Amino acid sequence: MELEEEENNPEGSSTGEIEGPHDPTDPVESVPALTESADSTTKSSAPVQRTPTYIVYENCLMELFQVCPMCTRESDVRVRRLGTFLTVQQHCRHCQYSRRWNSQPILGSTPAGNLQLSAAVYVNGASFFSIEKIFKTMNLKMFHHDTFRRHARTYIEPAIVHKWRTAQGGMLAELCQQQNVILGGDMRTDSPGQNGRFGSYTMMDLRRNTVIDVQLVESSEIAGNDHMEQEGLERSLTVLKDHDVKPDCVVTDSHPKTQEFLSEATFTHYFDVGHIEKGLSKKLRKISQRKDCRKLKKWLRSIKNHLYWTAVSSTSGPERVAKWKSILNHIQDIHVHDDPLFPRCPHPHRTSRDTNKWLRAGTPAFRQLKKVLTNERVLRDVWRLSPHPHTPSLEAFHTLTTRFAPKSVALPFLGMLCRLYMAALHFNENAGRPQATTAAGEPLFRVAFPKSKKGECTAKPVKVEPTYRYVGELVDVVFDKVFQDPTPYVEEVLKISRNPDLSVRLDKPDELEVISSYVSRINQGRT
User: Fold this and answer.
1) Pair 100, 80: CB distance under 8 Å
2) How far is CA 384 from CA 171, 247, 310, 344, 395, in A?
3) Is residue 456 a contact partner of residue 142, using CB atoms and an 8 Å limit?
């Protein structure tokens, strides 16, 4: 038996740039000798990508070809492999019987399994190198990274862009027909701190809890990372304007550049309560650690709840400020206030068993608390607090995005953009999942210990399992549309505007000179 493995081409790293459409008969992926008759391959009426597949061991497979089915004598068997594809040529020297068996259907000149594996890895947000390690551990045969990148550039990434833009167009068409559109936006960087290469700005429909736009901003496109959020917001608003979507209000964080940019907007600009609460809670926790301010620890949760209540129960800016300032009276056990917009606390009168919890005017704890809560900037932010929930949905999406595009992995521009689109497709499909129930119909909960609660436990509802219909739909687009004629889909991707990489703007140095000038950190002081 003769075994011919595929050539071991060097696995160079890919830049992720989109190239022009490839010929489906790409010689690297083609199997010209196999496009003839494959008389032993059973044809199925199901689409190639939906046909069940199995793991078959080589020695088990060869047992089917060692004996001639006509004369029952030993046959000559020749095996050829291309990635996950295997073809077996059986020839009997005694009766001249011969046949060829293919392990996969051949689309044009491309083995279907190779393309299907590339699509499955990509659209599930997995890492090729992690899958490659699994394959090597199981001794499963696989193609090289260059083949995966070629499949991604030519078929998979164009399919993802097409799928997202089709879904986005439908959502925006519905929004342009609606009144009182409430949107929320926020930025996520691809690495912690101020060193992020990319920033992704997400615009969400807060009524439906769905992502309607994702903008990817590269740090080299703008003056600095501080301008990323404004640039992403501006691009998202341009997309909304192009589709004639007129929001009634937009909820963002209170970033100064965002405030300045939206100062003349035709819609109402609200600040997200979650962002402001985090900043205040951080300051108050720090103050409460002082020896003369420890009483504040008992009030931290109440102040946090009061901020959220102020936002959702008020109808105007002055009313929010009046309710917010009332907390300074409340913590002194005073529940009647001088402001006519909020003359008294709405809760019933209660006699507290712990009289020591109340603060007194003039004490260090009260002075520090008043200084933080009545700060001019805090009052301006409270004036524009949003009555609409914003943070939980966007934070959930950002957490999901980390699964598709981990911050520890450096991705090219188009690779990052496609993974953001897949995260948005997954999020929108599973938005509003109901709570799971037991066989008796009782709602399910789980006990969690969030880091933010410092060891305190809390009950969280268990939702039903997520669905992944978008994965199958993306694979169908790859095989049924893009593979048949990749040209229009690749051209759609080529229209995506982006700046060239920074390395393109610099003169390429001589490789030998760079290597010769290398000095390790240990030897730097000795040269």
Assistant:
1) no
2) 28, 17, 11, 22, 21
3) no
Of residues 222, 220, 231, the one with CA closest to residue 185: 231
Token code pair at residue 128: 């090729």
178: left (phi over 0), alpha (psi -120 to 50) or beta: beta
Burial string for 60-84 (b: 16+ CB within 10 Å, else e) reads: eeeeebeebeeeeeebebebbbbbb
Task: Kindly state the DSSP code that residue 110 receives in the 8-state scheme.
Answer: E
Q: What is the mean pLDDT of each run of 10 residues along the chain (527 residues)?
A: 38 38 44 43 70 92 92 92 94 93 92 95 94 95 95 96 95 92 88 70 92 90 78 93 93 88 90 91 92 89 92 92 92 88 86 81 91 93 88 87 87 92 95 89 88 77 93 95 94 84 72 80 58
How many CB atoms within 10 Å of residue 339? 14
Q: Tally DSSP H helices, then E strands, for the chain.
A: 19, 13
Residue 349 exposed, middle or buried by CB count within 10 Å (0-12, 13-18, 19+): exposed
CA angle 202, 207, 211 (to 5 degrees): 25
User: Does residue 225 contact residue 259 with C-beta atoms inside 8 Å?
Assistant: no
The rounded distance, in Å, linking the Cα atoms of 319 and 39 is 80
Query: 497-503, long-range: CB within 8 Å, 24+ apart, which pairs?
Result: 498/218, 498/221, 498/413, 498/414, 499/218, 499/220, 499/221, 501/15, 501/220, 502/220
Give the Cα separation of 510 and 104 in Å (integer): 45
Q: Which long-range contacts (CB under 8 A, 24 or more apart) does 49-55 make?
A: 49/112, 49/116, 49/119, 49/475, 49/476, 49/478, 49/479, 51/105, 53/113, 55/138, 55/140
188 strand-pairing partners? 200
Please report which helix (H) or strand (E) contains residue 2, including its range.
Answer: strand 2-4
Does an H or E element contain 88, and which? Answer: strand 85-91
Q: Tokens representing 216? A: 């990817």
Predicted pLDDT at 24: 42
Task: Please give the distance of CA 388 from its chain centroid, rounded to a whole number.
Answer: 23
Q: Under 8 Å CB-to-CB from 419, ≥6 apart: which residues? A: 125, 401, 404, 405, 411
Do the Cβ atoms of 384 and 275 come closer than 8 Å? no
Other CB atoms within a 10 A radius of the CB of residue 138 amount to 9
Give the helix/strand (H/E) hosting 198. strand 198-205
Q: How far is CA 59 from the centre of its chain?
A: 42
